[in-house]
Amino acid sequence: MSYEAGGRRNVTTRVERDAVALATLSGGVVGAAGSPSTNATTTARLASIAATARAYAQESGARVTVVGAGGDQLIDTDAEQPVIAPADSRSFASRPEVRDALAGEVATGSRPSRTLGYDLLYVAVPVAADGAVLGAVRITYPLDELRQRVHRYWLALAGIGLFAIAAALTAALLFARWALAPLQRLLTAARAVRGGDLDARASGGEQGPHEIAELAAEFDRMVDEVRTTIETQGRFVDDASHQLRSPMTGLRLSLEGALDVAPDGERPAIEAALLELGRLVGIVDGLLVLARTPAEAELVVVDAAAVARDRAAAWEGLADERGVTLDVAAPTPLPCRTVGGALEQVIDNLVDNALSVSPTGSVIHLEALARDGQVVIRVADQGPGMSESDLAHAFERFWQGGISTGSSGLGLAIVRQLAQASGGDAHLEHARADGRGLVAVVSLPAAHQTDT
Is the pTM of this model over 0.85? Predict the structure, then answer.
């Protein structure tokens, strides 16, 4: 383990420094200790050095041994008292590190101790005076203790790391909750507004960054402006419905009255004026429908098959007058979800468009069927059809293509808007491979039978 190796180097360096300090402290005593001239002063100094070594050993967990020039033990922190008499001394001369130190070298390393039964980290330094080696100081350190210290360090480091991670996660969670709560309110308000609730607001919370609070306030101001715009549009639609219909109704009555008494030479002009007035009424009605149809409207469940049969019956008389057969295929109940009254307007517009292009003797097929979780309304005619370019523009407002039918150009635009407001869509297809005939297809979300 790299940390264990680094820890061993650090311990070795520190122990070597301590051994040199003890050797310096022992230099004036080791040479005199154990000799016949040993006096009380030497003995006292030796005891003082032994006390210092013992305190160091207790603090560090190491063992300190001081030997004389012959390798005889003078101080051993494992012993109660320093050894003064050579006869009582234990010899460390056989220890390789002691031999090196007595030879004047600093010895460091590790080895197994047969005596102690575990591996030792050792440092042995010579005790010298006036160029002569008087003895040696050896400090040994159990490698097991070093390994345990490494393990304790790693456990402590892991504990600190786990605590730091837990603290960071807690702080991050609190910050995220503090920062995201206003964003969640903003998201909830946005979804409510999209669903038509213009009373929903995003601001009002105390917490969160200042920038998000400003964003929420700006969102609320935007919703206020949208509501004002919608209310203004609603008032305009109501006003337009009254202000436009009333004069057009009066104009139509005047033209019809004039037609009854007009000379034959003036009748074509009055009839043309009535035709254009009818077209104008159709445009106004179409624009009012488009303006009144919200993007997100409340849906109701209706039986598409029943509506298709009812509208076919309503158009059958006009179809007969024009020599066109109106065929309807809607045999079973087909519950679907749609804006209230939208399906009737959709079918009326599609049948009206089909009649305007159908030649005498042709057939218009009106079909209602279920397909892939949707209810599909199909109106197919046998008219001239459209080019691919015309198909791409057919649902644009006021677009009438290359054939003038006298229509407002809003019928298909109304069909698509009502279908999309109901959660569906509308498109046109060629009825035949040669491009003749058209099929208008409207898809609406199906509903369960029990919802009707």
Answer: no
